Amino acid sequence: MGACDFSAVFSEICGSIVAGDSVSQVEIYSLLFDNYYLSHKDEAAILDKSDINKRKQGKMNAHSGIIKYYCQDPEALAYDIETNIIPLISDKYALRDTFINMVKCDSCSEEKKADTLSDTDDLPHFFANVIIHSFGHNSVQKNTSPDISERIISSVPKPCKTFSGRKKELSALDEMLKAHDKIFVYGIGGIGKSEFMRTYISEHKKEYKNILYLTYESNLRTTIAGISFKDDVPQETIAARFERHSEYLKLMKTDSLIIIDNFDILPHEDVYLDELLSYSCKILFTTRNNFGDDYDTFELADIDRTTLFEIAEKFGLSDINYDTLDRIFAAAHDHTLACELIIRLLKKSAHTPDEILEMLMNNHVNIGASDKIRRSKTADAARYSEHIRQLFRLFALSEEQQNIMRLLSLIPVAGISDKYFQFLTNTTDCDIINEVDEIGLIRYEDHLITVHPLIGEAAAFDLSPDMDNCGHFIDALNMEYQHHLKTPINNMRQEVILEIADRIVEFAGKDNVPKYFEFLTNAAPYAEVFEDTYRMERYISQMEEYLPQITDVLSKAVYLTIKASYSMLYGNDADTAIEYSTQALSILHDYPDSYREAVLCFNIYNSMGAFFIEKKDFPRAKLCLEQARTYAENFDMPLDDVAVMFHNLSVLGIRQPIPQTNKNGAGQKISGSN
How much is the pTM? Predict the structure, then answer.
């Protein structure tokens, strides 16, 4: 059944009424259908509080007489809404957007949806159309979610074939989820939280109408915005897409489940957590952190030794003395990921059990309770991650395998498609990827490459990716960051390559400061395209750290232009943006000698034109954009940047028509003062 039933529509209207506590549901119902009751005074007795409650709860549809009356005369309903209802609504446009989402996820035909949504700007008539549309549902279950497959492109990863045990934990989590809608499943890194969650889904998928599996990246805003909706448009910002996606997800009820994997931060570190906790559906988070008594938490403890033996048997490890294997598992603290790597090493016969045991004993790591409270990257390096690093070295990878693992240590936790990885690394096949998958260091299935976060950190620690040994990879990313238009392709790849940028900031060596600085100056404007202020701030902070080591004048000018863009994007501060832009121009030549300088001057003038438009200083905006157009006509500027210029010109043309450009105007000074 669909989501746009009368009970849902009427509930949304009641919830949007200003001073709803002082206006009863009976009064709202009466005002909504005022024309009907004025012409059917003998039926006034139908306005019974109990009946109205039943209609709001979905136990009864609207009165049959009302349905017949307004289906024959929709104009009368539009009049009632315009006269009686809209003046009481706190935010009529928010209600409109809610109704649009409800209609879109309704189970009716696409033709009927299109008819109902034919005129959303005329609010009285649109609201009337929605109500009449809702009459078509005789009754609904209040807790029924829309079918997300109609709007969302998603898939749920399968658990690995070697998963064993955890039956009691799986049952306990299911029981807890019946009583609590939002649960944080916590445990130390590498203990198997993700596989545990995938197994839970596999065993209980028939119990849910919808299951949405997400990997946490950066923050919840980008995570939710990154969901692939069928009606996404490239022009949307991350903020706008998050709001739209979130509004739709709010329609999901307790028959739906969202999993957010790798939520490895504390609650106060993500300002969007409260919004997700307000959703009506069930949500499971996996995290390395124990959130304490303020949240519903479920601890995933160490796996038992018997289960580890079962896993070893599934790998075909049958010729090892179990007493020896028992001592090895004990030395590894029964840590799931470490034990699995040990099993793979023993299966590979690369090292004897005694050799592995000696390594573990000589690199003793105490995995204590503190690890379950707060993930600390420093603590990780000194404690449980050390075993993973030592075991990673024991695989004795070939040079080609090391090169691939070095690059894979920089990919997003959610993974990367094999084709896109090949493109970024200039490789022609996946032979080496298949090799490291067979070894067990990565997971490669359905054309998606993923690396466990702890193995990725171990690879980064041991193989030391930097600006030189990942040079081609960095160059390919720099080229990708040059695409400054919001297109479907950019929209699909932006989260991937910005996540890679985050990993480079976190894990890659920065000895080649000029190359790293250049990388940041490419990544930051790309983040700006999608109005990702979170990342812009992070990249600018990195630039400021390394700026004293930069001698290239143009690089310093680029940094100032990025500061200008951030001032405008984050603070809507056109004055500060113009000040930074003016500083950038002051350190450049009036008449650029190089193409690089020309492109930079072009972009500075282009941006300043937009800043002056924001200030409604049209004469200076005109002068700046004339300068930008001169550079575009005299140099072969990047097409994406030229497109931005023409957009700015069109905006200014609406406000203040621009006369014919003076091609000799290049080099005129633009003052930032009024």
Answer: 0.69
